[in-house]
Every structure is written in structure tokens, then in C-alpha cells.
């Protein structure tokens, strides 16, 4: 068993019948504050690494962010929406599609060409799903509000 599989089993047990009441109560919506806060803490870990060379905080915070991903996937599986394998398969296929210069025959001369290709491929993938972008400004505003709440809760404001 991989460490990732072990984590998945731990999360399933925490949300199981004899698991943790708090973990069982969590939903995609209730976990939004923690997800945003953990992403900010990853940024902090990167900053610590950049300024001090110490990677310990980044390692811990990446684990906390991974916990969020695994928890959301577990909840989705319980709701028969999708599985962690679906999430992993989706991102793997996206990376292959969006890197035809690595996994295909497209040639690029520099990273700028990579970005141009990426945006072109992304635009094709999103065709017919443009409506989803309308939700993004609200999500950015909500993320900012959640960060502000986290800052107050931790005594930084």
C-alpha cells in the first residue's frame, strides 16, 4: 500500500460510521474556509523556503492541502459524484493534452510558446463550458473573504 492509499483509508475511516463526528459532518461547502486557508499556508511555506532554505513548513502545508483534496474526493465518492481515481485520471489526461511538446509531436522553442499553446488548448477544452467562468469572480471574492476571516481568527488583523 502506498502512503497515498493509506491516507485515503484514514480519511474514509474518519468519515465512517465509527469515525470522527467532526469529519463526518464536513461537506464541500463547510470545507471551503480550510481549503483556502491551507492554500495560503502553502504560499507561506514557499516563502519560508525561499527566504530561509528550510523546506519543513512547505512539506507540512502541502500535506494539509493534500488532506483537503482527499477529503473532498472522499465526500464526492460518498455522494456518488466521482472518485479520487477520477480526479487523478482527469489531471493526468489534462497534463498530457496540454503538453503536446512533451507527449506529442508539437515543437516549441521557448516557454512563451508553451504558454501560447496551453491557452489555445485550454480554450478548445472549455468550448461550450464558457458559462463556468461567470462563477469565477464570485469565487475570488469569496476566497478573499475567507482569507480575511482566517487572518482575524489567527490574530493577524
Automatic annotation (TrEMBL):
Transmembrane segments: none annotated. It comes from the Bacteria. InterPro entries: MazG-like_dom, NTP-PPase_MazG-like_N, NTP_PyrPHydrolase_MazG. One of its GO terms (molecular function) is nucleoside triphosphate diphosphatase activity. Residues 26-103 form the NTP pyrophosphohydrolase MazG-like domain. One of its GO terms (biological process) is dATP catabolic process. This is MazG family protein. It comes from Dorea phocaeensis. SUPFAM superfamilies: all-alpha NTP pyrophosphatases.
